[in-house]
Amino acid sequence: MSTAADTKYVYVSTDKKVKVILIEEDEHGIIKISGDVASSSRPSTYHHTEILINNNWIRFFCSCEAGAHGFLCHHVAELYNVYRKNVKKLGSLR
Hints:
Structural class: alpha+beta
């Protein structure tokens, strides 16, 4: 999946590998993080990644080959790590 040129990102990591599209929290306290994460094997290709976080569980989706089969991929880990590292800054975006 290539990133659309007109996509508006709320946060882009300093290395430009992770581009956060949205962070929102619903009325049940579930946090949704959505973003595009650079492919390590295909230059200039990004995979769309989503993470849902509740106090007791984390669910994820990624458009890469591993994610299509339900496996945890490095794209999910990278999006999660950017969120956790910048939670105070990104928390104000909700």
